[in-house]
């Protein structure tokens, strides 16, 4: 059946750590951790008892309290043996509404997975929030058990240096966090690691602890780091009273070295003035011509065999792809009736959103999985649908949306995706109120995540993949506001040595399409680079690329950014909601965005270079050239007259997808 098979693929049950001094077992399941106290000397409460009612009242009060906006909740309710104490703590960067939503979900989970226990603790995914309750006083008491630790399985490029940087970083953050007040004890930061690694750290205590207790708790965590996470690129140690974590990028590339310039040619000898015979010139020509012919033949043979070898390899990969297609089709395909039952016959209460492709639903049992049902007049044909299924199913990257299944039956076409909580980037960045929630560090994380996702498509998957429809509405944001690239219906595969392809059907979204694609149907990895450059400028400015209005005049964002940059007024591009946050880093991102939208295809950087630029502020950026000024929609007739199909049809019917939430 559909639901069990999906649930089996998503649920993991794993005991992380057993704490010998208690009977609590920290359990990991569905991306969260919990521990229920099962001590023999502590009686459980009974259903509908006074303690049970007090617990429900207390947790309801805690998760619905809107007066607290700093992420720390502590309440108690009841009397004598039936008194319940609780603590709720959200990670320091969580907004109040997100914090309460996280605690509310934790409350629902904790009371169901720890039924009748008088003491329990719950950590949500990535420790976004922690919820505890007990029948004893827990406020102001340092609790170092139960705890759990975990690590990223990948090793650092330089183990000893990485460990040294991690220790230094976490020590520094601890010193900052313990100085916090009764509202928050939290610190984040980063240090350069080995080579191009950047190591990020986070430490936090419950703010009810004294400075000494907070320091002691974090010191215990730091002592645990070598045994759990030595030499790894990420790790964490989490206790009820404090948590500590470090992470680093796993997609780092050094800039490719440019080939050395050839040595200068020797100067030509002076003309012969000695009166010698011209026979030497004749002999020279007689020798040079055959040598040149042999050299040319050799070059042609090399090109031929290299092309033949590349073609053979490409055919082998294609054969493997055909085998993969069969396997993917068999493992991910579901019949329509099964999905229909799972969504309660696509009942309206299960509807999550609607866009150009169709309607998105969740499962009737509340499981957070998006079932995207394409409308019959969506314009996406079977070929585009199968293309998206086969491509996305084989892509595995944290910045790409994950496909769980599909259905192609009669006229019904459905895609089952992972549920992505925070809708899409355009929902935030172009909204006057919501974009204020995106402070610069979050926007920078989104920019870098998109870059890493595109880099994976261009260079790290078996075949080079060109997305062709990168835009703000196709960038989904998960619970942690990590970006995930979506909608691969327009994507195309490139061979290993292929750099460019032509098409007569222009598909995509105006403003994001590169000029060589709009005008001549030519697309390449640099087409995606252009779209990414537009995304950077939109994220920095909070302005749609469709137009910046100045009185009665409307100017495209790329030309607006270029003009202000050239006139030394680049601060005009920056979203006022960012205030003065990280001004140098913002200006660097504008610079990178302008490099990506240059009209000359060869001048645009590769995504490899872009990721390096974003991660290393020591690299000097080249000066950007004039960007491409986009086609106006009124010029569609010019495109048609060049022999291309109408791009507008593809835009309206295929690529404008806004599915909220997904």
Topology:
Blueprint lengths: L1 H9 L2 E6 L6 E5 L2 E5 L13 H15 L7 E6 L6 E7 L5 H18 L6 E4 L5 E6 L13 E4 L7 H19 L7 E8 L5 E8 L5 H19 L4 E5 L3 E7 L30 H54 L3 H7 L8 E4 L3 E4 L7 E6 L7 H13 L8 E7 L2 E7 L6 H5 L10 H21 L3 E3 L8 E3 L5 E3 L6 E3 L6 E2 L12 H6 L1 E2 L1 H17 L6 E3 L2 E3 L1 H10 L16 H14 L10 H9 L20 H6 L5 H9 L7
Antiparallel strand pairs: 1-2, 2-3, 3-6, 4-5, 5-7, 6-7, 8-11, 9-10, 10-12, 11-12, 13-14, 14-15, 15-17, 16-17, 18-21, 19-20, 22-23, 24-25
Structure commentary:
This protein has 662 residues and is of the alpha+beta class. It has four domains: 2-134, Gnk2 domain, C-X8-C-X2-C motif (Killer Toxin P4, Chain A); 148-248, 2-Layer Sandwich (Killer Toxin P4, Chain A), CATH 3.30.430.20; 336-418, Phosphorylase Kinase, domain 1 (2-Layer Sandwich), CATH 3.30.200.20; 428-655, Transferase(Phosphotransferase), domain 1, CATH 1.10.510.10. Helix 12 (525-541) runs antiparallel to helix 14 (583-596). 38% of the residues are buried. Mean pLDDT is 76; it is low at 1-23, 250-277, 316-320 and 630-662. Keywords: ATP-binding, Glycoprotein, Kinase, Membrane, Nucleotide-binding, Phosphoprotein, Receptor, Repeat, Serine/threonine-protein kinase, Signal, Transferase, Transmembrane, Transmembrane helix.
């Amino acid at each position: 059946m559909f639901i069990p098979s999906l649930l089996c693929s998503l649920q993991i049950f794993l005991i992380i750590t057993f704490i010998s001094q208690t009977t609590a077992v920290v359990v990991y399941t569905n991306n969260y951790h919990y521990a229920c106290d099962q001590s023999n000397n502590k009686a459980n409460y009974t259903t509908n008892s006074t303690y049970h009612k007090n617990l429900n009242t207390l947790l309801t009060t805690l998760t619905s309290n809107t007066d607290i906006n700093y992420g720390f909740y502590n309440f108690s309710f009841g009397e004598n043996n039936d008194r319940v104490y609780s603590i709720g703590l959200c990670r320091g960067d969580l907004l109040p509404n997100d914090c309460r939503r996280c605690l509310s979900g934790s409350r629902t989970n904790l009371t169901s997975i720890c039924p009748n226990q008088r003491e329990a603790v719950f950590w949500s995914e990535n420790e976004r929030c922690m919820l505890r309750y007990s029948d004893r006083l827990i406020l102001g008491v340092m609790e170092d058990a139960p705890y759990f630790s975990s690590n990223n399985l990948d090793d650092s490029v330089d183990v000893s240096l990485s460990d040294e940087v991690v220790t230094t970083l976490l020590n520094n953050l601890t010193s900052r966090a313990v100085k916090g007040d009764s509202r928050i004890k939290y610190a984040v930061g980063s240090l350069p690691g080995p080579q191009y690694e950047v190591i990020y750290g986070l430490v936090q205590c419950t703010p009810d602890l004294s400075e000494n207790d907070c320091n002691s708790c974090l010191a215990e965590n730091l002592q645990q780091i070598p045994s759990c996470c030595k030499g790894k690129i990420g790790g964490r140690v989490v206790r009820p009273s404090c948590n500590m974590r470090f992470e680093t990028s796993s997609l780092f590339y050094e800039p490719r070295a440019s080939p050395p310039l050839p040595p200068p040619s020797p100067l030509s000898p002076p003309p012969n003035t000695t009166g010698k015979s011209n026979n030497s010139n004749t002999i020279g020509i007689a020798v040079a011509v055959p040598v040149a012919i042999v050299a040319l033949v050799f070059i042609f043979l090399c090109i031929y065999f290299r092309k033949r070898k590349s073609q053979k390899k490409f055919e082998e990969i294609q054969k493997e792809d055909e085998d993969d297609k069969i396997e993917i089709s068999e493992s991910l395909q579901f019949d329509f009736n099964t999905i229909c039952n799972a969504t309660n016959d696509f009942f309206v209460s299960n509807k999550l959103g609607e866009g150009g492709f169709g309607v998105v639903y969740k499962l009737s049992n509340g499981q957070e999985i998006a079932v995207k049902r394409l409308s019959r007049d969506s314009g996406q044909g079977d070929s585009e649908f199968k293309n998206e299924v086969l491509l996305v199913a084989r892509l595995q990257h944290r910045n790409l949306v994950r496909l769980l299944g599909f259905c192609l039956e009669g006229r019904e076409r459905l895609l089952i995706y992972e549920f992505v909580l925070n809708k899409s980037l355009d929902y935030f960045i172009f909204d006057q109120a919501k974009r204020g929630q995106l402070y610069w560090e979050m926007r920078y994380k989104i920019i870098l995540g998109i870059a890493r996702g595109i880099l994976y498509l261009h260079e790290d998957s078996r075949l080079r993949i060109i997305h062709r429809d990168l835009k703000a509405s196709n960038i989904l944001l998960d619970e942690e506001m990590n970006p995930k690239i979506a909608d691969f219906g327009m994507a195309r595969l490139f061979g290993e040595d292929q750099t460019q392809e032509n098409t007569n059907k222009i598909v995509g979204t105006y403003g994001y399409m590169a000029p060589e694609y709009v005008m001549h149907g030519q697309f390449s990895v640099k087409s995606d680079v252009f779209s990414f450059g537009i995304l950077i400028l939109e994220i920095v400015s909070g302005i749609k690329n469709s137009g910046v209005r100045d009185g009665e005049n409307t100017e495209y964002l790329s030309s607006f950014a270029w003009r202000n940059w050239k006139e030394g007024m680049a601060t005009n591009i920056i979203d006022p909601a960012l205030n003065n946050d990280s001004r140098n880093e913002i200006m660097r991102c504008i610079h990178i965005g302008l490099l990506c939208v240059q009209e000359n295809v060869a001048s645009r950087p590769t995504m490899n270079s872009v990721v390096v630029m974003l991660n290393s502020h020591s690299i000097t950026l080249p000066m950007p050239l004039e960007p491409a000024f986009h086609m106006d929609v009124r010029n569609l007739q010019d495109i048609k007259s060049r022999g291309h199909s109408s791009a507008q049809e593809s835009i309206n019917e295929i690529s404008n997808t806004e599915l909220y939430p997904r």
